[in-house]
Specification:
Layout: H1 2-30, H2 34-41, H3 44-52, H4 58-72, H5 74-101, H6 103-110, H7 116-129, H8 132-148, H9 153-181, H10 185-192, H11 195-219, H12 233-245, H13 249-261, H14 268-303, H15 307-334, H16 336-343, H17 351-365, H18 368-383, H19 388-407, H20 414-440, H21 448-476, H22 481-507, H23 509-525
Helix pairs in contact: 1-9, 1-14, 2-7, 2-14, 3-5, 3-8, 3-13, 4-5, 4-8, 5-8, 6-7, 7-11, 8-11, 9-10, 9-11, 12-19, 13-14, 13-19, 13-20, 14-15, 14-17, 14-18, 15-17, 15-18, 15-21, 16-17, 16-22, 17-20, 18-20, 19-20, 21-22
Length: 526
């Protein structure tokens, strides 16, 4: 599990970095403008289709059932796999087709603050992006099969291919149009807008999310035939149905930023999106990698009725994640402005935009540790076959926060929207922890509050010192804003580690264990 988590963590880090490169190119070319707002808003409907068909949770719903089928023999497993694949592909094609037909009407729902002309442009972007969901959803079945086989290389590679293709689409389409029309690149870019990035989405999904997993699955044994009936499909549907119908605040958080951000001034959607993208880097690196890698092992432990080892594994995942993500979030909080300056500032994204986005990043970072805990905890629920509890509680929180978004936050400021986002996610995760403790006891959650408090206590003084250093350097360094930010962040990061690590290694055994294991593996490779 540790090796799988390291592989997925490395992939997630590269994917997040590539995502930041993609957003850097977008911010350089378009800044926080209406064109960028429309591009980000164009993902609301496609993402909702993915949520509705539980595409992101396919491995969670199908792995336990498919695992039992394979134990009973392959002749029983492949018809079930084929049935799930057939239904999911057919449903994604139907929903995508309907959404493309009614794109203008859907645009007015997902971006109520846009003008009629902007909604028409948004509908155009949506029609280009929507077919990607067919590849994501059908490819998720092959991804689940690879996870079941504990083959993590292709799932780790898939998001890199997807993000890389989007970047290529955004850069190459204006270049091709420039050659075809005789315009210079900037004129072609102005006329094409963000259509190239939109075109890269379905192409990247086809290659990264569908074709590569399909080819990898074929290298093992894969028997796929169209079928709409299987005795286990009803069980699968009952397991997946809460994930389909339950629209949790975690799933819709990004969409809320886009929908209600459209009701504020131009660029609000983009600034909220850029800030959220940065918060997802530590979440993906620590939380997602650990959660995805641990899930097959948690299922296996419950299948063997090893509850004690299950709780021990879950507790290690919680505590190990906290000792990594709280220091990272603390340092990012103290250095939000130079981070934005280094990553996004340039071209049409200026200092004003960096100053406007920095507090949004700080607000969202407050909920980052809870995001990480959620990603592990929710898979513990799913390992028990309980998809209803997370879906129901998350949907209740969604219903409660939508009026706050609409009547208060969206009529106030981007900061108010960010606060609502962080508060709603925190409320949901804390509620889930209360339910888990009541049902399964506190063996897996024991000591989390003292651990969190200790890590925070060890992180705050280094974070404050790193803030003083970077703010002073940003004010006195005579170089360009990017060079100043790079030097300030380098000095800030080194100082943070020098102040944090000696005490952390003394008082946090989880961190000490990580470093010892990494050192041993490095020596073996050497």
């Amino acid at each position: 599990m540790g090796l799988a988590a390291l592989l997925l963590a490395a992939s997630t880090l590269l994917s997040r970095l590539m995502g930041l490169v993609r957003d850097k190119v977008i911010s350089w070319q378009f800044g926080a403008t209406q064109e960028a707002d429309m591009y980000f808003a164009a993902f609301v409907v496609p993402d909702c289709i993915n949520y509705l068909l539980a595409g992101g949770f396919m491995s969670i719903t199908i792995i336990p059932l498919l695992s039992r089928c394979f134990k009973d023999g392959q002749e029983r497993a492949w018809p079930f796999f084929s049935c799930v694949f057939t239904w999911l592909t057919a449903a994604s094609i139907v929903l995508t087709g309907i959404s493309m037909i009614f794109a203008e009407e859907l645009a007015s729902v997902v971006a109520p603050g846009f003008s009629l002309e902007e909604r028409c442009r948004l509908a155009f972007f949506m029609r280009i992006i929507l077919p990607a969901q067919i590849f994501f959803l059908s490819g998720s079945c092959f991804m689940a099969l690879l996870f079941l086989r504990k083959q993590f290389t292709i799932p780790a590679l898939s998001p890199l291919v997807y993000n890389g293709t989007i970047i290529l689409g955004g850069l190459l389409v204006p270049a091709v149009c420039s050659l075809a029309s005789g315009q210079n690149y900037h004129e072609a870019l102005s006329s094409v807008g963000m259509a190239g990035y939109c075109l890269g989405v379905p192409i990247g999904a086809c290659i990264g999310a569908f074709l590569l997993p399909f080819l990898a699955a074929r290298k093992g044994s894969l028997h796929l035939s169209p079928t709409f009936r299987h005795p286990l499909f009803k069980t699968f549907l009952l397991t997946a149905l809460p994930l389909m119908l339950g629209q949790t605040v975690i799933m819709l958080d990004e969409q809320f930023l886009r929908i209600f951000g459209s009701m504020l001034s131009e660029g609000s959607v983009s600034l909220l999106n850029y800030a959220r993208r940065l918060t997802q880097v530590p979440i993906g690196l620590v939380g997602q990698a650990s959660a995805v890698a641990s899930y097959p092992f948690l299922v296996d432990l419950l299948t063997k009725d090893e509850t004690a080892r299950f709780n021990e594994t879950l507790q290690k995942a919680f505590r190990g994640g906290l000792v990594l993500i709280i220091p990272a979030a603390s340092w990012m909080f103290a250095n939000s402005f130079p981070i934005f300056t280094l990553i996004f500032q340039g071209g049409r994204f200026g200092e004003t935009e960096s100053l406007g986005a920095s507090p949004l990043l700080q607000i969202m970072l407050l909920a980052v540790p809870l995001w990480m805990l959620y990603m592990v905890l929710v898979r513990a629920f799913y390992a028990y076959g309980d998809t209803i509890t997370p879906a129901l509680t998350g949907t209740i929180v969604t219903v409660l926060v939508v009026p706050i978004y609409y009547f208060i936050s969206a009529r106030t400021s981007t900061e108010a929207i960010a606060i609502t986002s962080a508060a709603s996610v925190s409320l949901y995760v804390l509620w889930l922890f209360c339910i888990w403790t009541k049902r399964h006891g506190n063996d897996a959650t024991k000591g989390l509050l003292p651990t969190s408090s200790l890590v925070l206590l060890l992180s705050l003084p280094p974070a404050f010192c790193s803030y003083l250093v970077q703010s002073k350097l940003m004010a006195i360094l005579p170089f360009s804003h990017v060079t100043n930010a790079l030097l300030a962040l380098s000095a800030s990061g080194i100082l943070f580690l020098l102040l944090f690590l000696p005490f952390a290694l003394r008082f946090l055994p989880e961190l000490r264990t990580y470093i010892i294991r990494i050192a041993k593996r490095c020596r073996r490779k050497a």
